[in-house]
Amino acid sequence: MSTDLHTGFDEEMYPYINKGLAGIIAFSTTKSFIDGEKGELIYAGYNIDTLAENATFEEVCFLLWNDRLPNTSELEEVHEKLKKHRALPEPVVNYIKSTDKKAEPMSVLRSAVSMLADSDETKGKFDEALFMDQAISITAKIPTIIAYFDRVRSGKEIVEPLNEGSTAFNFLYMLNGEKPGQHAEKTMDLCLILHAEHGMNASTFTARTVCATMSDMYSSITAAIGALKGPLHGGANTAVMNTLLELQAQGEDADAVEFTKKKLANKEKIMGFGHRVYKIFDPRGRHLQKMAEDLSVETGHENFYKWSMDMLKTMKEEKNIDPNVDFFSATVYYSMGIQPDLFTCIFTMSRVSGWTGHFMEQAANNRLIRPRALYVGEKNLDWTPVEDR
Ligand code: SDX
After folding, report:
1. What percent of the chain shows pLDDT beyond 70?
2. What is the pTM of this model?
3. Which of 148, 191, 149 is nearest to 166 (CA)?
4. CATH code of domain 34-227+341-364
């Protein structure tokens, strides 16, 4: 059987299956463009480098929701609406306060976002006139859910959102109980920009599939959170941090090159490396690498950056595989004092802007998403009574 491991395409038995839907074009979209060979990423017309240097996360949200940048009054309106929607419905606050403190943050986030639907009196209506406000409301509330749970599980009082400041500013304020400095806010804002949108990744595909049944936006985002949670997708940033902490446990002189080679010899996947589309360094990773280098020095975590570079070189030499967006973001978040099991939640609070943008795009030109499967089991077997089986 001549199977291509990368696509699962097999001429003999599976004439039409692309394993993992690799290479399948399922939709047209204006939300983003990726050139995996050149390492180019564009959000609705703007190169990620242009946005990283000039935009704020709120401008990127507007861009992904409207396919254009906001003017001054539109940007002010986005800020005002996000501020207005940061507070959580009481049942959701009660859930966060009462759930198991040892629960996974991504599981709590998934449950809490699902609960938001109960307090939305427009729930259940599949109406394009409602989607923008729902997108803003969910985007505004996710940082609050994350920060509240981290405070509660740490035995601290929750810190309510301020009626001022950006999404990044408020998230760090609610998480740490003190207003962040400009550098920390800018760092978080840039991380949110870099993680906002990325074409037909697994969680965005999930969001569109749920939308296509004319279900509601809360169901779509809840499902997408479930998809992002997996270590082959958004969960990789937490897994990268666990790898670096494993190295740290070996002491200052841990050998990241040997460590990496041993894992490869055991046929283990090295988290934070590889990508279905990029065949060179993920363009987002370059910005995160610079942030990781600077922050690791500023916060005394130089070893994490050194080990990261050793792993990067080893993966390139051994497998010709480059880091993806999750690799350096781990060192950035850890250097900012954020718990590793919150890293994928931060990915979520950014990617919800892309998911909701895709939801609205799908709804505007919808068709139920329903591929086929090639049945390879037995057919028309004779019945055998249970006592004879
Ligand atoms: C994200 O899709 C997106 O856009 C996602 C994302 C986004 O913004 O939404 O960019 C975010 O999810 C980034 C990816 C985070 N995941 C990880 O870091 C987990 C580790 N990476 C791998 O599991 C893998 O690279 C995937 C899942 C990301 C991609 O998998 P593919 O396209 O199915 O490729 P594959 O698993 O078939 O690997 C092809 C070859 C294999 O070697 P051979 O068996 O042919 O010898 O490359 C090897 C793999 O073993 N390989 C790796 C590897 N990634 C691929 N070997 C070791 N370590 C790795 N990380």
Report:
1. 96
2. 0.95
3. 191
4. 1.10.580.10
